[in-house]
Every structure is written in structure tokens, then in C-alpha cells.
Specification:
alpha/beta, 4-stranded antiparallel β-sheet, 10 helices, Rossmann fold
Length: 309
């Protein structure tokens, strides 16, 4: 495969189930070695997209090339080139960590002469040293995710699909899992990861936002913020908080207002408001503002704005 050929190239990819359109004419490209985050709430079409790209689901319309293979015409042809870690990755609870890895090495037809080398490589990469004799059933959620990743990597695929890989694991395990993703990318692996955690999007080279089957935007985090957020972000300590968000949402010059922890988070059009006059306006509604803090805009701000357009 030439270096200039995209790892993934999708044009007008569509999947309908009866009268329901799960994925609606999606188009994008992923370059070799990229980490791409595919974001959106549950039910937005992320998993359906991945299943089509892995050759597990036939598209209703559109084209998809994955590692140079036409997935629509040759869904089986793509499978040796990819690793796929699904939301419900099949680990065998009555097998040990090593036995699960050996099983997947056989499934992926890893040659016998390199199998032990590959297993050692995967165990080291996933941080599974010292746990190879543990039954899969004994592992916590974070360790099960590491093992599932190891199983998807055992044949050393150049492209890795991760579907909600950190769902249901604690924040420390999430951070450690992303460390592993970076190691893979640094070694040249292309990673396509779905998530509904907006903070994880900041770790990606490029990000796609899915909403109700449509790809709303696709670019680098920096470019998405520059393109869609024409304002500054403030966090307000206000009481009562819910009423503050409601009032802010109705004011001119406020692009969006939402709850963010124990603060009201707003995107303000430059020049329309100062902290002082905004505080005074809220006071007129019986709302007390004790602090206004400038903050960095986030990709969650971008998604919220796009989803409500």
C-alpha cells in the first residue's frame, strides 16, 4: 500500500434498518498513523459505522475503502488488516489471560514460529505482566479492557478499531488505556476510536461528531473550536444555578449556556457582555453571581452548539 493512500476512505456511507436511518450519508478519510475520535451520544450511529468498516454489516449505500480493500465488495478481505475491539468483546472467563491471547492468536492465524514473540509483545504493551495466569473472570473492568485490547492486537494489525473502549472503567484506567493508544500510534498503528466522553476527544488528532446518524463535523480539535466557537467561555458561580442557566440561555449575545458541575458555563459573543453587566442582568432576575472565571472552550462546547443548530 502506498504511503499516500488513506487508511480509511468513506463516501456517502449509509445504513438503514427498515424506515430507520442509523448512518446517514457519512463521508471522511483517516490517514495512516492518525488517532481519530468518533464521538457522539449512545445511538448516534458510531457502532453501526464501525461494524460496516469492519465488514460485519453491509451498507445500504455508499463506499468504504479500508486499508485499500473495498469493504462493500470484499468484507472478508479487510479482516486480516484490522483489529476490532467491540463494546462486548468476547473474553472467555474460564480461560486465563495467556490462554485468551493464545486463542485469539489462533483465530487470527498468527504463525506458530512468531506466536510466543507476539504474545510477549502484547503482554508488555497492554501492561499484563504478572497477570497472565489470572482467569479472565477475576479481572476488574480496566484489566478486562487491557486484555481485550491485547487480543485485538495479537496479529499486529496496522489499523485498530476501538468501540467505546473505556466505557464503564474508572478514570485512572481510562487515562492508562489512552497511554497505551498513544504508544500504538507512536509505533505507526492507525487508531479509530468511538467514545461518548468528550474529554477523550481532546487526545485525538482529528475528531468526528456524530448526532442522529449524521456526521456534523470532522477536523482537528483546534480547527473545530476555531470554526464553530466565535466567542469566549466563562464559568459563573451563581445561585440559584438552574435559574441562572435558564436566564442566560435566553439572553442575546450568549451562544450557549449549560450546567458544568456546580457552575453555569457560557459562550459569550465578544463585546456583547462584560462580567459586570452580565452579573447586573442576572441580579435583576434575583440571581446572585459570586464569581465569573474565564475558561478554555472545549469540544463539548462545539458539540453542544452543533447538535442544537
Amino acid at each position: 500500500m502506498g504511503a499516500s493512500r488513506p487508511a480509511i476512505s468513506v463516501q456517502g456511507l449509509t445504513k438503514r434498518f427498515g424506515g430507520f436511518t442509523a448512518v446517514d450519508s457519512v463521508s471522511f478519510e483517516v490517514q495512516p498513523g492518525e488517532v481519530v475520535g468518533y464521538l457522539g451520544p449512545n445511538g448516534s450511529g458510531k457502532t453501526t459505522t464501525i461494524r460496516m468498516l469492519c465488514g460485519l454489516l453491509s451498507p445500504t449505500a455508499g463506499t468504504a475503502q479500508v486499508m485499500g480493500v473495498d469493504v462493500v465488495r470484499d468484507p472478508e478481505g479487510v479482516k486480516p488488516h484490522i483489529g476490532y475491539m467491540s463494546q462486548k468483546f468476547a473474553l472467555y472467563d474460564d480461560l486465563t489471560v495467556r490462554e485468551n491471547l493464545e486463542f485469539y492468536a489462533e483465530v487470527y492465524e498468527v504463525p506458530r514460529e512468531v506466536e510466543q514473540e507476539r504474545l510477549a509483545e502484547v503482554i508488555r504493551l497492554a501492561g499484563l505482566e504478572g497477570r497472565t495466569g489470572a482467569l479472565a473472570s477475576e479481572l476488574s473492568g480496566g484489566w478486562r479492557q487491557r486484555l481485550a485490547l491485547g487480543c485485538a492486537l495479537v496479529h499486529r494489525p496496522p489499523l485498530l478499531f476501538l468501540d467505546e473502549p473505556t466505557s464503564g472503567v474508572d478514570p485512572v484506567a481510562r487515562r492508562e488505556f489512552w497511554d497505551v493508544i498513544y504508544q500504538l500510534a507512536a509505533a505507526g498503528t492507525t487508531v479509530f476510536v468511538t467514545t461518548h466522553y468528550m474529554d477523550e476527544a481532546e487526545h485525538c488528532g482529528r475528531v468526528g461528531f456524530m448526532h442522529r446518524g449524521r456526521l456534523l463535523a470532522y477536523d482537528t480539535p483546534r480547527a473545530l473550536k476555531a470554526q464553530h466557537l466565535h466567542g469566549v467561555a466563562w464559568d459563573l458561580a451563581a445561585n440559584p444555578l438552574l435559574e441562572a442557566v435558564e436566564v442566560l440561555s435566553g439572553l442575546p449575545g450568549i451562544a450557549q449556556a449549560r450546567l458544568h458541575g456546580d457552575r453555569a458555563h457560557v459562550i459569550v459573543t465578544p463585546g456583547d457582555w462584560t462580567p459586570e453587566n452580565l452579573t447586573a442582568r442576572l441580579a435583576g432576575h434575583g440571581i446572585t453571581v459570586s464569581a465569573v472565571q474565564p475558561v478554555e472552550p472545549t469540544l463539548e462546547d462545539v458539540f453542544t452548539l452543533l447538535a442544537h443548530q
